[in-house]
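Recall the central idea of this unit: under ordinary conditions, the amino acid sequence of a chain determines the structure it adopts. In this exercise we apply that idea directly, starting from the sequence alone.
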Amino acid sequence: MIGLDFQVLLYLFGGVAAVATLAGLIIVRLSSSPPDLSRHETEKFFCDPSKPGSKLPFPSIHDKPTLDLSVIVPSYNEEERLPGMLKETTEFLEDRQKKQPNFTYEVIVVDDGSKDKTTQAGLEYSKKLGVEKVRVLTFHHNRGKGGAIRLGLFSARGKQLLFADADAATKFADLEKLEKIFKEINKESHGMAIVCGSRAHLQEEAVANRSLFRTFLMHGFHFLVWFLCVRGIRDTQCGFKLLSREAAIRVFSNLHVERWAFDVEMLYIAQCLRVPIGEVAVNWTEIDGSKMVPVFSWLQMGRDILLIRLRYMLGGWRINYKSKAQ
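Accordingly, the structure predicted from this sequence is:
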């Protein structure tokens, strides 16, 4: 009798678990929404600080490129760290332009709904170098790093597009390392290619300085990325990546995740589209003031990675192979 009761309970538990799992999958499927490619009206324009009240329209990524390189700098409450990053970046690019007079570039600072003076910090460089070289895209509300990078890319004029973090953790001169690999994998003049800066070579030192729990979370996150989404890339999260214009259009038009885990979905989409992807070690330094909360952010990203895989498997998210940006 006891054995029979236990068997009944086991069947009941299995039934409840199956129903709960099915309900969860249905919720995931129904809660899946298409990529948000919209802009608030104010996000369609930038201003020239030398002409107070000016309202100039951003170009579209579908326009013919007119510059060699666009650098996108996603920024949220970065009034303190952004000036140093812009100084290093523009000095490098200005020096290259002196050596190569035909080289052209722009830097687009994307203020992701900051509560401080991030926009003003960016505009100081617009004033210094002119809006042909430095522009500021100010969001109406916070979207997240992935959303900031997407609209920055979609407002760019460059043949090649680099996004780089506002904290200047990666030495900007390492752009040359990315460009070298880019040339090797981008076989066609109008082809697609992505090169990722990588901190994987620093992992051993990082593990030595982390607690056992944080090391466990880090390895757990890397395993989830490898198992569910992206293989062959050792560091998916480094904020220093170079893309061809076509790759930016195709990949970011399909991107759904706009916060910390966006890099993983970006590379997942790129691999599905068979975009050539390279990876190269870069010089990287820990900078104070990170917006990530180590344990919470990793757990949140782990959840997002699981949802990325589930939503694509269930058909809630689908890759449009003829993507268009607005």
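The mean pLDDT is 86.
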